[in-house]
Amino acid sequence: MTxxxxxxxIAILLVLFFVTLFLWAVKREQFDDLxxxxxxxxxxxxxxx
Amino acid sequence: xxxxxxxxxxxxxxxxxxxxxxxxYHDNGDMFCCWxxxxxxxxxxxxxxxxxxxxxxxxxxxxxxDSESFCKEYLVSVDGREGMRFFVEGVQCTACLWIIEQIPHxxxxxxxxxxxxxxKTLFVSLEKPGYFGRVASTLSxxxxxxxxxKSLDEARHFQKxxxxxxxxxxxxxxxxxxNIMLFSLxxxxxxxxxxxxxxxxxxxxxxxxxxxxxxxxxxxSLWRSLKxxxxxxxxxxxxxxxxxxxxxxxxxxxxxxxYYFDSLxxxxxxxxxxxxxxxxxxxxxxSSSYLQSFIESQVCKxxxxxxxxxxxxxxxLLAVGDKILIHERARIPADGVVVNEFVNINPAxxxxxxxxxxxxxxxxxxxxxxxxSNVAEVLVKxxxxxxxxxxxxxxxxxxxxxxxxxxxxxxxASQYFSVFIILVGTLFFLFYFRIDSDxxxxxxxxxxxxxxxxxxxxATPLTQSLSLRKASKKGYLIKNAESFEKLSGVKNAFFxxxxxxxxxxxxxxxxxxxxxxxxxxxxxxQETRNAIYSIELNSPHPIARTLVRHLENSTVKRVPVVSLKxxxxxxxxxxxxxxxxxxxxxxADEYVSDDSDIISSVTAIYRDDDIVAYACFGDKxxxxxxxxxxxxxxxxxxxxxLSGDGESPVSRVAKRLNLENEQIKAGLFPEEKNEIIQKFxxxxxxxxxxxxxxxMSSDAISIAVQGSAEASLVASDIYVTKxxxxxxxxxxxxxxxxFTVIKRNLVFSFTYNFxxxxxxxxxxxxxxxxxxxxxxxxxxxxxxxxxxxxxxRSFVNPSPQPDQVRTKKRV
Lengths: 49, 811
Description:
The complex is a heterodimer of chains A (49) and B (811).
Chain A: H1 4-27, H2 36-40
Chain B: E1 24-25, E2 31-32, H1 35-47, H2 49-53, H3 59-62, H4 68-74, E3 76-78, E4 81-89, H5 94-101, H6 103-106, E5 110-116, E6 121-126, H7 132-141, E7 145-149, H8 153-188, H9 194-214, H10 216-227, H11 234-253, H12 261-281, H13 292-296, E8 299-304, E9 309-314, E10 323-326, E11 335-338, E12 342-346, H14 348-351, E13 357-360, E14 364-365, E15 370-373, E16 376-382, H15 388-401, H16 409-432, H17 437-451, H18 454-473, E17 476-478, H19 481-486, E18 492-496, H20 497-501, E19 507-512, H21 526-536, H22 542-552, E20 562-567, E21 571-576, E22 579-585, E23 599-607, E24 610-618, H23 625-634, E25 638-642, H24 647-656, E26 664-665, H25 670-679, E27 683-687, H26 693-696, E28 701-704, H27 710-715, E29 718-720, H28 726-761, H29 767-790
Parallel strand pairs in B: 18-25, 18-27, 25-26, 27-28, 28-29
Antiparallel strand pairs in B: 1-2, 3-4, 4-6, 4-7, 5-6, 8-9, 8-10, 10-16, 11-14, 11-16, 12-13, 12-15, 17-29, 19-24, 20-21, 21-22, 22-23, 23-24
């Protein structure tokens, strides 16, 4: 069970990492519009100017 | 602009050299991979591209967008770029996205366009000022309706920050709650000893960000509602969070195995999630427009007596006594008097009258009316802000500001419930204190935590946001959830006539034979049609224009006309192929009036003094109007017509809809509509015109139908982007069903909480049971809401009629 003393801190670090990642994504406005990118991916690159 | 790749002009497929013999070459050298692409491209070019490439698609209508005063208020800067935000109606699919994002391609002065399809907003930034009008008219030529939205820099920024803040809180809360639950799981399954203490303190550590950061909105909104002396649903939530935390902390320190960190954190996550969803689905941004600027910023031409010519100025600078010139299809910006010989106008948006009118020199003309044909020279009597419509818009803005906030049923119910629970808890504590003081504290606190109707606090917003999302997929934009909830209890439906019950366009309805016997499908012969077409082409009269438009849809040919003569005030005559034709308004006794129709004007066609045909004109009823009103009746909702039009056209429509005399009110001023609607509680106002906007901004629920004037759009609670009247019924049904789900959740949650509370008082609830029971309760309500809204019955239009298909704006 002593392995838990290693695993639990790692788990906590992982949590911190993912929370930071999430906060970064929010800041980059990745959650602002969930519909348009889904359509935009269907357009060919040559359409973009 | 576009680089010349060796690729298909239409689909973009690369054309390899080996495939060159298969390549289709167009006359101008464009390459296509196949004939299919070439054909589609040619059709697009012929049908749409001329509209885009013509420099003046419809300049008058959107000119105001580029006026200095308008830009000052509407320009926003996003990420360092200055631009204007528009609400775009009709954006549906990838093709829409493509075509709209081609705009910088067609209008080189546009720097970039960015569309947000979930909000249906478009952000346009320019390289050179003065091209917003071009963008708007191009979009409108393509069939989209564009409305500029005012988003104050700060407000917009603030709103975005608010949403981001909510999302951050939700994310952090979810991460912490997940870990708390992991640790708790091992604790509940019997972990003991040193590791258990570590886990307990880790739980505490993870709970602290939730308590201090994520739960902040609840504290704030409770504080605000307490200050306003209005109990809110946040009261029991905050009580549960604080008491739960204090109790758990106390137990942790004194070594008792009772904590609520896991249940509380889960609760907060669910609450935050449902509130975030709801605030994302409510379409509040349309309300932020500033109404007055639409008329005041219009550009018009003012007569300058010094250099004896007309010069362009924004309407807000107009003064009493100015002489202005308004072109065809533009709106009159100020109240005044006509000074040129005559002008044909369409007053529908202001008064609700469906027939175009001819105004002669000296007659009064009101701001907001549209010039149909000829130009109008007007002497300004009242400035735009003092004009009749300006006054109405001012009142609308006042009334929107004073609207009493609606309190949803859940809020009300949980307020009483939470006060009741806290009361019971205190009484129990006082009573049991003498018997066992420790147990008294424990049990009454357990009661308050367990019985808190928290499941409701998130089940309701979740249910609402799910059905709002459903509604928005169908093209109904709902600005706030409370008015949507209130729609379920509607007992009276008030309809505007012109543009709402009817199509709002003056149209050709049908031919009618002078002899009664061959009534069915009568149509004049080809020769007569050619003659009518050729003669009417020379008349600027709105009826002539309508007739020409109708005839152009069939095969007609222009033939030479001699001795054309206008009959003042009534018609036109001419000689075609040695036969004299006269086309003039028929007197009322010349034709048999048929009450079942909504004909408002009849024109007689004479050939050599004999009547050969009658042409009937009027404003067509929406194809689903009759069925909608009948269905509403079945649902126990009484329909009324509130119209500014005269008694007789209104009663004809009422007859078609089987409405009683008391259900129609004609000849109403906007203020009177407002007064009537205020007298009827539980009512919904359905309208489209500026004359409805005052009634729509009242406390009644209001629905603006497709194609509504900006004023109605802003004043309404719900905006329908689909044609016809079915959406009204669909919305009411959707709302009723949503409400049923909410009510079911209420009943379930109360029973559950009541039972749980009783068990807690009797001392049967151990922390473990509480920890299991609380999420189960939440989960059940969650399931009930999602399944309930998923299978929401909504009215399906049995047979979509061609009329209901979105019609593109003709340019």
